[in-house]
Write a structure and sequence with these properties.
single chain, 100 residues, alpha+beta, three-stranded antiparallel sheet, 8 strands, 45% strand
């Protein structure tokens, strides 16, 4: 499910016979003698005594996360731009709402 490449992972998603990929940034750092790996975008993290162990555990966490969640809802909530409403006063009478 995950291919590691220069602080990014490629997640393969199979949904209803369609296969797609996401390239997502990750971080890996050493903290107090342990390696910490994470995907801030999805609030997924892991740690291990070695970099390899931390990344393996991150893969396991991703497998679990993406198989248990409704992937479409997760992606839309994390990757879709937020909806913004702006009120514009026209001649100081009635505001108009414009959705962006």
């Amino acid at each position: 499910m995950i291919n590691k490449s220069k602080n990014r992972i490629r997640i393969s998603i199979n949904k209803k016979g369609l296969k797609s990929f996401l390239d997502i940034p990750i971080f890996i750092e050493k903290d107090n003698g342990m390696f910490v790996a994470g995907i801030p975008l999805f609030n997924i993290g892991s740690q291990g005594k070695t970099k390899k162990q931390a990344l393996k555990r991150l893969k396991d966490a991703c497998d679990s996360y993406f198989s248990s969640e409704d992937i479409e809802k997760v992606l839309m909530s994390r990757l879709a731009p937020p909806k913004i409403s702006v009120n514009i006063m026209k001649d100081f009478k009635q505001p108009q709402t414009i959705k962006i």
